[in-house]
Amino acid sequence: MEIKSLQKLFYQLYGREDPYPVEFYFAPGRICLIGEHIDYNGGWVMPAAISRGIYAGFRKEDNQIMWMRSGMDERDIVCSLAAEITYDESRGWGNYPLGVLSELQKKKIDLTGAELMFNSDLPIGAGLSSSACVEVLTAYMFAEQAGTPLDRTEIALIAQKAENNFIGVKCGIMDQFAVAHGKANNAILLNCDTLEHAYVPLKLGDYRLVVLNTNKQRQLSESKYHVRLAECQTALALLQSKTGILRLVQADPRDIDKCINDPVLRKRAHHVSSEQRRVQEAAAALRRGDIEAFGAILFASHRSLKEDYEVSGHELDTMVTGAQENPNCIGAKMSGAGFGGCAFALVKKDAIESFIVYIEQYYHRHTGRKGSAFMVDVVDGVHKLI
Ligand code: ADP
Ligand code: MG
C-alpha cells in the first residue's frame, strides 16, 4: 500500500490539524514454510514473513484516550488507558490491540493516548496471521512511543500472551515470532520450546512463492485446533509412560507404533514426528541450495497434514493438487492451522501470471468457489515506515 493513500485515509478519519505528526508502521503476514502444528508441540518450525501485511497509522495525543479504526468495519473503538483494560466482546477486533495494551500495562509501560488506524492488504482470518500482525504492531508502536523499545522476542511473547489470555486462542509462539523477527529473503528456523533461532537463506533461484487463498473461512478451525492440541497431549502422555521423551516432536516412529494403540492418536503422533524430520531436511536442502528437494518436502508435508493430522479439507487439497499437476510448480502445501485459509506454491518465476490464471480456474472448476492467488516476496519483520 502507498503511504500517500494511507495518509489520505488517516486525515479523512481524524482530520489534519494536530500538533503531532502521523507515523506509519508495517507488520508482515507470515506463511509457515514447513513445521505445521509443531509450535505447540515444542519443536522446530520454519516460517517466513511475507510482503503483504497490516499497516498502522499512529498519532500521539496528549491524553490517555485511544481511538482506533480499521479498514475492517466502520466503527470507532474508544478506550481509556488510565484504567485497567479488560476484555469486552462488543469491541470485536479491538480486543486484539487492547489485549496487547493490557499486557503492556502489566509491564508498567507508560501508554500514551493515540489515534490509530489499521489497514490490511492481507486476507483476514485466512491463516496468514493477520491477528499476530495487529498484536505485534501494537506492542512495537506503543513500546517505542513510551521510549522503552522492547526486543523483538519480548514483543512476540507479549503478543502471544494477549492472544492466549485476552482472546482465548491457545496459539503457540510461531506466528508472532515470525511477524516480529522476519528477515528479507530468509526463512526463520525457530525452536518453539527454547526460542533458539537461526536464519536460513531462502535462495529461490528461478522460483517464487505464490499464496493460494481458498477464501474459505476457517469456521471450525478453533475448536478442531484445540482437539488436536488435546490429542497431542494424550499421545505424549502415552509415550512418556514408556519412554523418556519430553516433547512429542522427539518421538521415535517405532515407539509410536509400540506405545499408542488408538489409530487416530497414532496418526497424530506420526505427523508430528515426521513433520519435525522434514523441517530439518528442508533447512538442509535450502542451505545446499537444492530448491527442488525443498519443493518435494513441501508436497510430503501436505500429504501428512491431510492423511495423518487431518487438518486439510477439500478446498486446501484442491489448491495443492492443482498446483502439483502444473509443470511449473515444484512444491506446495497448506499453511497455518488448516480447514480452509491458505496454501502456497513454489512456481517458476517466468510462469507466475499464467499459473495464477490456471490455479484460480482449476479451483473454481473443482470447488465452485472463487479462490485467489498472489505472489509474495519474503521481507523484514515489523518496522516503522515513516
Ligand atoms: P488470521 O490470524 O489467520 O488472519 P485470526 O482469526 O487469528 O486469523 O485473526 C483474525 C482477527 O484478527 C480478525 O477477526 C480481527 O479481529 C483481527 N484483525 C485482523 N486484521 C485486522 C485489521 N486489519 N484490523 C483490525 N483487526 C484485525
Ligand atoms: Mg491468527
Can I get a quick summary?
It is built from eleven helices and twelve strands. The protein has helices spanning 3-14, 95-106, 130-145, 152-167, 174-181, 221-240, 253-259, 263-287, 291-307, 314-324, 352-367; strands at 23-34, 44-61, 65-70, 77-80, 113-120, 186-191, 197-201, 207-213, 329-335, 342-348, 372-376, 383-384.
Write the layout of secondary structure elements.
Elements: H1 3-14, E1 23-34, E2 44-61, E3 65-70, E4 77-80, H2 95-106, E5 113-120, H3 130-145, H4 152-167, H5 174-181, E6 186-191, E7 197-201, E8 207-213, H6 221-240, H7 253-259, H8 263-287, H9 291-307, H10 314-324, E9 329-335, E10 342-348, H11 352-367, E11 372-376, E12 383-384
Parallel strand pairs: 3-5
Antiparallel strand pairs: 1-2, 1-12, 2-5, 2-6, 3-4, 6-7, 8-10, 8-11, 9-10
Q: Any idea what the CATH architecture of the domain at 3-201 and 380-384 is? A: 2-Layer Sandwich
Order of helices and strands: HEEEEHEHHHEEEHHHHHEEHEE
Rounded to the nearest angstrom, the distance between the terminal CA atoms is: 13 Å
What is the arithmetic mean of pLDDT? 96
Radius of gyration: 21 Å
The dominant shape is: globular
Q: Fill in the CATH topology of the domain at 3-201 and 380-384.
A: Ribosomal Protein S5, domain 2
Oligomer: single chain
Report the count of strand segments: 12
So how many helices? Answer: 11
| Residues in helix, % | 40-55%
Largest beta-sheet characterization:
8 strands, mixed
Low-confidence runs (pLDDT<50, min 5 residues)? none
Structural class: alpha+beta
Query: Per DSSP, what share of the residues sits in E-state strands of 2 or more residues?
Result: 15-25%
Bound molecules: adenosine-5'-diphosphate, magnesium ion
The CATH class of the domain at 3-201 and 380-384? Alpha Beta
